[in-house]
Amino acid sequence: MPQAWWKTRLISTPRARWVIYPLFLVGVAWYFGPTYLYAGPTNGFDLSNSLVPATEIHHGGPPRDGIPAIDKPLFIAAGKADFLQDNDPVLGIDRNGTRKAYPVKILNYHEIVNDRFNRESVVVSYCPLCGTGMAFIAAVDGKDHRFGVSGLLYNNDVLLYDRATDSLWSQLMRQAISGPLRGSRLQQIAMSHTIWGDWRRRHPDTRVLSTDTGYRRDYRRTPYAGYESSRALYFPMRNAVDPRYHPKERVIGLTLDGASKVYPFSELSRTDGELHDRFAGRELRIRFDAENRSGNVFDATGRELPSTIGYWFAWQAFHPDSEVYTAP
User: Fold this and answer.
1) Residue 310's pLDDT band (cuts 50, 70, 90)
2) Within the chain, where are the H helices?
3) Are 204 and 258 within one domain?
4) Which of 20, 69, 129, 154 qualifies as a cystine partner to 112, CB 3.0-4.6 A?
């Protein structure tokens, strides 16, 4: 059913947004617990040596860990994941002979999963406001780290923190922006951002993150209803959003050798589903599936490269000089 005109107008007008957003926070507080509304402006993090202006780091509402990371993830077989529908979005990782799916309906409430693939520590992150799912090897200088949700945002993107040093990490920058590890980088790993039916078909032996997270949440509901279709952003951006595409246009973003390129879904939908491209001196193959709302990038040898699916505004904010693919 089409959204009522008054709902569309209400969520898309800046003036109304600042009325709605506090009400949104109150509603989310009901999910996340009573401490949600009593967080300090920096949640106890030292921003004095931040790589980005501290005034542009915004308090998202929750205290640190008010959105609780999943530290002891439990997984079930695909056949037992009856809480998932085929069109439910998931993040999927195939690594070290192990395949796992992380439903977005769970990640909406936790944003971070500290996990392992055999002996390798991996952190899975998802930012609902940017639509970005990214996974990293959770090690810096050979030392494994565990991460939490800081409750702070930069350019609407989640800031993680490592529990060993309290350094803040920007998901989309893949870098620590403050604290003792400032300037350190995380190694991104390949991950699929697709729908459950597609991932299960390709990986029938996959394990699935269970709703048995240790927290009481109604994972059937999303606290972000209507957000993806609206042009509204909840927090200020450092620069104006590039108007070439809808702010929430889905894109595939790629960085290679310090350069970046972005492939909007609306442009990829004009291809036959497989695009051969050359970027940063490499031959690339981009596989796009409009029905599954997914895309992956491969090099000339067939190796999948780490890429990021998310909203146009978010990629453009962190990579303003990105080359933008346009279909002929």
Assistant:
1) very high
2) 5-12, 14-32, 104-107, 196-202, 265-268, 312-318
3) no
4) 69
